[in-house]
Structures are given as structure tokens and as C-alpha cells.
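Table S5 (text form). Sequence records supplied for joint modeling of the two-component complex.
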Amino acid sequence: MKENNRLTEYGDCSAFLFDWHEQLVTRRRFLQSLAGGSVAAMFPSIASSEETSADIDENRQWQILDTVLKHLLPSEPNAPGAGEINALNYFQFIVADTSIDAGEREFITQGVVWLEDMSSNMEKTSFINLNEQQREKVLRKIEQSRAGENWLSTLLVYLFEALLADPAYGGNTDGAGWAWLQHIPGYPHPPANKLYPELLKL
Amino acid sequence: MSITDFDVCVIGSGAGGGPVALSLAEAGYSVVVLEKGPWFTEKDFYKDELACCRRSVYTPRLKDEQHVIEDRDDEGEWTGTPTSESEWDFWNGNCVGGSSNLMSGFFHRLKPVDFHLLSEFGPVKGANIVDWPISYDDMEPWYDMVEKVIGVSGKLRSNVNTEPRSSNDFPYPPTTEHAVSGWIDKACGKLGYNALRVPRAILSQPEGARRSCEYSGYCGSYGCSSGAKGSSRAALLDKAVTTGRCEIRPHSKAHKLVSDNKGRVTLVEYYDRQGQLKQVDAKIFVVACQAIETSRLLLTSTGPRFSNGLANNTGQVGRNLLFSAGGTGNGELVYAELPPDKAEVLRQVGPFVNRALDDWYVIDDDASGIGRAKGGIVEFLFSHPNPISLAGRTKRGRNGLVWGKPLKRKLEAWFTLDRVLRFEAFNDWLPVDDCFVSLDANIQDIWNDPVARVRIGYHEENLRIGRYLADRGVEVLEQLGASSIGSSNSSSPPTNLVAGGCRFGKDPATTVLDADCRAHDVENLFVTDGSFMPTGGSVPYTWTIYANSFRVADKIKSQLGG
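The corresponding C-alpha cell record, covering 764 residues in total, follows.
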């Protein structure tokens, strides 16, 4: 078990990242081997309608991602969802953050294209137009490929960041994620000029 | 003697470098400290899980600087994997103050027995166990000094295993303790075990420019925003700089120690932030880059008298690398199973647990099959409060990824029903032939210097003793009434607890450094990080590294003329 590689004297928090790192490796290898970036690469059994990939403009891409995030973390009266924590805003920060490997960020947006391809193939319409059951069906189908599972897992990891990182990063609106999970955050909180992209410039 | 830029050049600013810099600057000598990473201060440290633990803020990006880790593959052959591929990060705090900025600061001295394991227990087949060239008594005054200079908070609770001390008690009262500490005391009492009250290198009262601990609950792996944590930076280097005789150069990556025909180091070449090769000369050079990087720097520093690397004419540099062996375990303290008042105090975040067991520092247990052998300690602590890490562990279920409402219910359960009490067992990582640092023949860092290749072989005894200690930890968790108790041992090295590689000793044929941590065959080269340790002991290394560095600083002072 790699989980125990770092004892707490100097912090064990990286230990739990191992799972995430493992996926990262798979993801990079997958991206390296990816030729066309179409759903055919993920599901060779499904013929890709090649024109769909090019059709998604940036706004549309964010709309689709927003829909996915709201499905993964739905809103409830007493428990915030992706909408309440402004998850999309956080993902926009991540995708623009040049301190994160470009391949990783590309993977997030590329996955949206695959999803849209899959939705067209399975339901003959955009993911945005699907009802909850159809969305679940398409996402579970995506999950069956290694890359698809990887993509969804990556979204969940960043969704957890959107839920529980300091609100200064654009998610976790007013600490709603912390309040929901009864988590007591530490003080002092980072001001805008001390967020990690700024620290990396020191 | 020719005029040099500085009296002393220290390479590396962590627990090994700080004591030398402060001691020599205070004694009137000029000191320059070269640090590869940036210079963060209290004004840069916030309780920000992304910055501390999820991005490469305090450590290099692995594609820029990495290691190659040699592990056995399925066929038992040694195979190297670059950490840029595996993402198994071996860096710890590359910034001014080094990884001491990020420590949890539970502090333990070595015990007298650690200084003479071979004499005490005899040889262990397959392990290179030796006695140290100095005794606990030689180190004790420096342990004592660390308590005062770094600032150690605690209240002595002696038992038969407590190391001899020259001061009656710690200079600062204990840090505030969590209610669970009392529960651990009770549980241990019932089992007949002596719960230690663990001191911490964290100020419980302000001292100079450093504020007292503010008990945020985010300590280990976070930089300290109050200055209470006894990092090399806050406790030593900030003071060294105020003497006016210590200059710290961040973003300065040592490239090579250049030596002359006589075998003396004349200067160090380093890359500055712009990638320009600079140099600085000094009378004495001190290397303290943390064990792996110290060996790497010596190995790359060839010279007219050292074709295989500085101080490496007997091929000992990099050998007998040490980590820390042990195990971990945890149990859930379920709020609903406790009376409301106990549940309430259990939720409290901030105060420290400060409890450990050293009853089995020497195991004497025939019934277990171990008999009499070197053991270790069991340290109790709460799980790190990092919520993103915790949440990350909820995403997989029996049937694949979990999302939607089921994920939300799972998150609620993981976060709100219980608090996880953990323990970590520490025991000796026995020195073996198959645990060493060399230079990788193919991979370089961004400055085109070969990266360290680290073979991580281990001795089976590491696991056997670790298992014994972990079983004792489990007994305590059971006595405490914890649920879902589990424990595990691993043969993998904890990457944050590393020492050895430049053993000190009397025999130049089998050691790199003499008893003063000066290279046997380089009169103006000292090594003051954990590299000197020929055996590692069964506690985290920091206090010993600090103490030894103060001890060596005193020797350097003498060499410079007192």
C-alpha cells in the first residue's frame, strides 16, 4: 500500500493523493497515445460522428460541463450542490491555471467533447437536453472505459476542491461546503494576493 | 590564508543548516546560506490545503527536478522508475528553512541505546549495524540547547525509558492538549502502559518575534503563520540574519563543490534564479541538503583528488541510506456512542494530542518470538484535517465511482459521524546494502545535473518490529473503545523521514565523516543534516539533526579559531 509512504511527522496529506497521482499517470499515458481525440478513441466500438467535435464552442463547452457537475453533485434543500458552491467558476479557474500541467487541463475539456459525442450516439441529442435518467445512463456508459472513468474521477477530485478549498479560489461559496460537512476550517485564510499561483511566483 | 567571500558557506537551510548558520554568525563569523527554493515568511503561510498539499508550492515540479527510484519488479530485479512518471514525490520542503517549516513538531530525542546498537544487541544478518563514534552523553548538551533555542514545549513525565536530561523540565509549558489525550492516558493506564507526554517544537508562549501557537489545528504539512513552529527559518535563520553576518541566498541551486589538488574545497558553483552559474568561496563548506541530495551533491562534485565524487574515495558516499520503518493504524471514535459532553469535546479542533508510548523502545518479549531486540515508539494523533483529501477517498464504491445523492450521503457520513484517531509506529530502518543513493546515468534536472537514483531495499526485521509495535497501538485503540480499527505495515520508505548516506565513524575505509562530521579526507568540508547517522533510531529525526548540527557548529568554530 503506497498510502503509508509518508508518516505524519511532516504531514501525511500527500499520501491520499496517491490514488489521484496514479490516475494522473494513466491519464498522461492515455493522452499521449490519443490520436484523434474523438469518442472513437475511447470506445472503438462506437463510430464517431466526426463533425460533432468541432461544433462545441467555448460557451457550450462550459454549459455542458456545468450540467455534468450539477449531476455529479446535485442541489438539495439542506445540502449544497455544484450550483450553490459555484463549481463551474472553480473549474474555469483550474482550466486557466497555467501552473497545472496543460495536458491535465486539456483532459478536462477534451472529456466534454467525448461526452457530447457519446450523448449524440446514444440519445441523438446534446447532453444538456437530456433528463436526469438519460444523463445518468450516458455518464455510466462513459465510466465503462478506462479513460472515461479517469475523466469522471478527475472531475470529482476537482469538484471536491470546489466544495472544500478556501472560497478565495472561487468555489465553496461563503464556506457552504465546510458548513454542510461541519468542517472547521483553519485560520488565517489566504487573501487573494497569497493564493497558490501567486506563491509560485515568489 | 587567502581572502574568501565568507568564512562559512552552508548549502541547504533546513534543520541541518540553520544551527550552523546561527552559531557561526553569532560567534562573529560571516556566513552565506545557499537555498535552492524560495524564501517564504509567516506572511506567505495560510491554512490553504491547495497550497500546502495539492500543488507543488513547497517542492519542485517533478518534470523539472526528480528522482529515479529503484525498486524490485515482479521478477525480483531492481528497476528504476523516474518519479515524474510514478508521481511518487521524494521532495520535502524546498524553501528557506527546508522541511522543518512543514513538520508536525512532535519531538523525541534518541535514547542512549541508539548510540551503540551493535554492542547492545549484536549483529543482525543482512544489516550493516554499527555503534556510533559518540555517545548519548556527547549529544545531551546539544539536545538541551535545542529545547531552549528552537523552543520546545512540554512537561516531563518520566518513566524507566526516559532519556537522561541535564535540565529538569522543558523551557516552555506544554501546548494545549486535546481531551482525547486524557482518554489515551486512561486507556494506557488500564493496559499497564506508560503514556508519554510528548514535547513539541512549537512555542506555547511568545518568544521575541515569534508568536505563540494559535491552535488552528492545521499544523503538520502547513507552514506556520504565527512563527510558533520551531522551523530552522523562524527559530534560527531569522535570528542569524539580524546579526548582520548571515546572508541567505534563495533560488540558489548548488551545482558543484570545486576542490583543488590538495583535496580542499575552494568554492561552490551554483545556479541563480536566472540560471546563471555563479560561485562563492569560503574557508569552510557545510552541506545539509537532506540526505539524498547531500549524497548526490558530493557524488557530482568530482575533483583532482576525487574522481568518484567528493569525499568518496572509499566509495561510501550514498551508502546505508535510512528511512524510518514502522506502521500505522486508526480507529473511529463515534460521536453517537459517546455521552453528549464527551462527543462535544471530541469535536474540538486545534489542541494537540501529545501522546506516545516508548515502553517497547527495547522489546523484551519471548512470548512474541522476538525476544530482546531494538523496538521503537507508538505515536498517537488525529487524522490530518485536510477535507479535500478526505473527500477524495469517498469517490469510489463497490460498483465504481460514486456520485449524485449517494456521494453526498457518503460525504456526510465520513465527515460528521466520527473522528479518526490514528497512531504511527516508528522503528529503526536497518541499514542495508540495497538502500543507497547513486547518480542516474540518463536523467538530469533542469540545470543538466544528473538526478539521484535511490535504491530502496529494506530488511525484513523492519516489518517484524513494526508489526509488533502496531499491535500495541491497536490494543490502545481497542481499550479506548474505537470502532473499525485497522492497522498496516509497509516495506515502502516514508519519503519524509530520511537520513544516512554519509555515515560518521572512526574508520575512513567504512565511513565518510569523522566523529565531528567532517569529511575524513576533506579538511574544510562538513555535513550537518541527517546524512551522518549510521543507524537511525526509532523516532523522527529532526531533534537529533538540530542537536548534532549545533554540536558540529561548535567544532567548526574551533577549526576557525574559536
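Note: Residues 102-123 of chain A form the longest helix (22 residues).
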